[in-house]
Amino acid sequence: MRRVAVLEFARLKVPCLRKIAAVTLLAMPGAFSAAAATAAPTAAAPVIFQAPANRSPAGPTSIGDPFGRVLPSGRILHPSGTSVVVGMNAQGVALTPSGRFAIVTNDDEFQAAATSVLDPLTTGGFSLAVVDTRTMAVVSRYSDPTETFFAGIVAVPDPLDPGNTLVLASGGRSDTVYAFDLDTVGALTRDAHHTIAIPGQTGPQLATAGHSFPSTLVPAWTGARVYVVDNLGNDVAQIDTATRALAGASVAVGYFPLGAAASGAGLLVANEGLMAYLRAPLPLAAPPFETVPADLARASSLSFVPAAPDGSLGSAVTADLPLDRTPDGLRDIGGAQPAAVAAMRTKPYAFVAMSNVDRIAAVVLGGTEPKVAGGTELRLYDRGPYGTQPTALVLAPSERRLYVALAGIDAVAVLDTKDPAHLHRVGLIPTGWYPIALALSHDGRFLYVANAKGIGHDRGFTGDHATRIDGGGRVQSITEDAGADWSTLERIDLEHLDLRRSTPLALSYLRTIAPARKNPLVPQRFGTGGSSAIKHVVVIVQPSATYDGLLGDLTGAAGVQYGPGDPSYLAFDAAATPNLHALARTFGLAANIFADASDQAASHQFVTAGIATAYTQRIARARSYGQDPEDAARSGSIFNACAMLGKTYRDYGELLRVSGYDQSAAPPDASAALLGLGGAYLFDVPAPLALQGHVDPNYPGWNVRIGDVRRAQEFVRDFDGFSKSDTVPAFTYIWLPGTREAGVAGAVPAAEQVADDDRALGTIVEYLSHLPQWSSTAIFITPSDSLGMRDHVDPSRTYAIVVSPYAKRRYLGMRHLSTVSALKTSEEILGLPALSLGDALATDMSDFFRPAPDMTPYDRIDAPTQTN
Question: Among 430, 392, 427, 396, which Cα is nearest to 411's?
Answer without folding.
Answer: 430
